[in-house]
């Protein structure tokens, strides 16, 4: 059984979002200690992935047309459909998430791999995972602009992932806020999520 950790915590070990993700993974593994779970991580802070451009898009179309999904360009899409549970950790940047995560997701949206269209044109998601958890931290309140998580919820609907969960530590950059207390509250939410899985 595989937990896929999509790590978009660009600041690495210094990242508060990463701290919450580590907490999630520890609690997840503890709650499943009688099952053979392992973690597979995609570290986007170091991953060398580029947006699709004219050349790579043409190559992708050609390969898909020929049914050649064995090409390395489809590895990330194949990896995400094989995961049994998915955790995305991404700081709240510019109302959503770091661009590296969008590039990663762009590589996962592949017709014929992550979703398949029926004859009637209805997409059917191909992901094995039935749940995805999204963790973030923000400098200010997120309020009605939880655009990163909203986007990921849309993706889950398309990819066939039924349940999504969300945990955040907000307002961490507002002077005077009790950061340890906010982080502790987010960790309580993580406990609730993991307990309910
Ligand atoms: C490039 C960049 C963009 C950011 N954009 C926002 C934003 O739109 N809204 C907000 O509340 N905080 C924003 N922040 C602040 C971060 O969300 C906040 O510091 C967060 O806790 C960083 O997470 P990390 O510790 O995991 O790196 C931004 C920070 C950076 C570096």
Bound molecules: flavin mononucleotide
Overall form: globular
E-strand count: 7
**How is the largest sheet built, in terms of strand order?**
2-1-3-6-7
Distance between the termini: 14 Å
Beta-strand share of residues: 15-25%
| Average pLDDT figure | 97
Number of domains: 1
Order of helices and strands: EHEHHEHEEEHEH
Supply Rg: 17 Å
Tell me the CATH topology.
Rossmann fold
- What's the level 1 CATH class? Alpha Beta
Low-confidence stretches: none
- The fourth-level CATH homologous superfamily is Flavodoxin domain
Structural class: alpha/beta
Count helical runs. 6
CATH architecture annotation: 3-Layer(aba) Sandwich
Task: Record keyword descriptors for this entry.
single chain, 197 residues, alpha/beta, Rossmann fold, five-stranded parallel beta sheet, two-stranded antiparallel sheet, 7 strands, 39% helix, 19% strand, globular, binds flavin mononucleotide
Account of the 3D structure:
By secondary structure, this protein is α/β, with parallel strands linked by helices. The chain has a single domain, classed as Rossmann fold, CATH 3.40.50.360. It contains 6 helices and 7 strands. The chain has helices at residues 16-31, 54-65, 75-82, 99-108, 147-159, 179-196, and strands at 2-7, 38-43, 85-89, 115-117, 123-125, 131-137, 163-169. Strands 2-1-3-6-7 form a 5-stranded parallel beta sheet, sandwiched between helices. A two-stranded antiparallel ribbon has the order 4-5. Helix 5 (147-159) links the parallel strand 6 and strand 7 (163-169). The two termini are 14 Å apart. The model has no long low-confidence stretch (mean pLDDT 97). Residues 9, 11, 15-18, 91-95, 137-140, 172-173 line the site of flavin mononucleotide (FMN).
């Amino acid at each position: 059984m595989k937990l896929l950790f999509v790590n978009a915590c660009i600041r690495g070990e210094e990242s508060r979002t990463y701290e919450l993700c580590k907490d999630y993974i520890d609690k997840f593994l503890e709650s499943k200690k009688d099952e053979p779970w392992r973690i597979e991580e995609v570290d986007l802070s170091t991953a060398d992935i580029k947006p699709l451009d004219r050349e790579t898009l043409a190559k992708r179309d050609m390969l898909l047309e020929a049914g050649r999904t064995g090409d390395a360009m489809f590895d990330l899409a194949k990896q995400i459909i094989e995961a049994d549970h998915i955790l995305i950790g991404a700081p709240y940047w510019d109302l959503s998430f770091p661009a590296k995560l969008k590039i990663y997701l762009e590589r996962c949206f592949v017709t014929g791999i992550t979703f398949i269209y029926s004859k009637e044109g209805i997409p059917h998601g191909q992901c094995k995972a039935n749940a995805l958890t999204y963790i973030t931290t923000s400098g200010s309140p997120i309020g009605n602009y939880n655009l990163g998580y909203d986007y990921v919820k849309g993706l889950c609907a398309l990819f066939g992932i039924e349940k999504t969960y969300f945990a955040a530590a907000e307002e961490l950059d507002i002077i005077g806020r009790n950061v340890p207390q906010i982080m502790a509250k987010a960790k309580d939410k993580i406990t609730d999520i993991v307990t309910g899985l």
